[in-house]
Design goal:
- This protein is an alpha+beta fold.
- The protein has two domains: 115 residues, Electron Transport, Fmn-binding Protein, Chain A (Pnp Oxidase, Chain A, Roll); 60 residues.
- Helices cover 37% and strands 31% of the residues.
- Helix 2 packs parallel to helix 5 and helix 3 packs antiparallel against helix 4.
- The longest helix is centred in the last third of the chain and has 20 residues.
- The protein starts with a strand and ends with a helix.
């Protein structure tokens, strides 16, 4: 199973990096698969730790892929690191082993501390649309512009029916960034 999360890591200077990432769950293991090059990869290999954050605030996903990464943080309890202040839950993990790969290594992690902060009430269609649009933004250089526009048009149908203020803000960040990247292509 893959869960869409926000991963927070820190470098050896104590600086926190925030990145959206699909985390693979296999039994009691969390598998993080960052593409090279990756600050998340470098940080986990250096510190052997990370925090997996579960949030329904899609602005954080959109913000991370559009250069807005200044989100409030709190100190982790069992590892050196931080979790998102407004997260619904977080899981502090330690790296147990690595299956190295020149493109996308697999980082196998074990939970050392988990906390539920608030109930997850599910994503509405607008939140889902923002998540999918954020993924599209990360793939602009690998997809044809027509494919991107077709996907955005479809996602916008559900988005329009259920979006609130947060979702509209996130959608505008992503669609502006996609159009900018397409112009630069």
């Amino acid at each position: 199973m893959i869960q869409e999360t926000i991963v927070t890591t820190q470098n050896n200077k104590g600086e926190t990096h925030i990145a959206p990432m699909g985390i693979h769950i296999a039994g009691d293991e969390f598998i993080i698969l960052p593409f090279r090059p990756s600050i998340t990869l470098d940080n986990i290999l250096t510190t052997k730790t990370a925090v997996i954050n579960y949030t329904d605030d899609v602005r954080i996903f959109a913000g991370c892929v559009t250069g807005r990464s200044d989100w409030p943080l709190k100190k982790a309890k069992k590892i050196d690191g931080h979790f998102l202040a407004d997260t619904l839950a977080h899981c502090e993990v330690k790296l147990s082993h690595v299956n190295d790969d020149p493109v996308r290594p697999k980082l196998f992690c074990q939970a050392v501390h988990q906390v539920n902060h608030a109930a997850f009430k599910g994503y509405n269609r607008a939140q889902f649309s923002v998540l999918e649009a954020a993924i599209l933004l990360t793939r602009v250089n690998r997809l044809a512009p027509a494919k991107i526009h077709t996907e955005l048009e479809y996602l916008h149908i559900g988005f329009n029916k259920t979006a609130g203020h947060r979702e509209r803000e996130a959608w505008s960040w992503i669609t502006q960034a996609i159009e900018q990247k397409l112009r630069e292509k």
